[in-house]
């Protein structure tokens, strides 16, 4: 069974800094394999809260360098490799993270494998298979991701990006969709998706299930649960608002 645990649902600086929502990323489970995505501040703490032990996690995926996605990268690699004494773990990340030294050298050497992400490529992490999209439109190097749930179903993950021509094409055919929805309304110069962008995506893609997450302050003020209900009613689609600790089985 493919299961998603939303360890945290915070996006944007203020929500993360005030911890109005946890900033702990996503944990995918496929049978006995785990893939941790975007270990933001507090990820290690929330793994402990849910009695999930880092040494059981063999793969990490970091979408981009911003701290709400990468702050706990080093402490998790340290935990997985038991302080660097055991060579284990596989980390997927954009080259920009390495170039800026965000992964400490001694931990880089402790990993069993380090994989640099590139556009339109396919990757394997234990039983997980995922594909990258073209580069997204953000202030850091990042990609969208499409995961193989089974032979017929795919899960799309739209990480931090502004809407741009071609974004729809990258996610056509997905059955499930997770969208980082930082803003309620668009704001000029802010490279994040907003609810009008989400509507455009959903009207075209028509996924079976959509989950909104990674909320900024304007989304929290608008009430993400209400927003999801209204989108579901308006578009006749199943749209959910993620909350910290939410589990979703596909």
From TrEMBL:
Q: Which domain of life is it from?
A: Bacteria
Q: What InterPro entries does the annotation carry?
A: Metallo-B-lactamas, RibonucZ/Hydroxyglut_hydro
Q: Can you give the residue ranges of the Metallo-beta-lactamase domain?
A: 35-215
Q: Which Pfam families match?
A: Lactamase_B_2
**The protein, known as:** Metallo-beta-lactamase
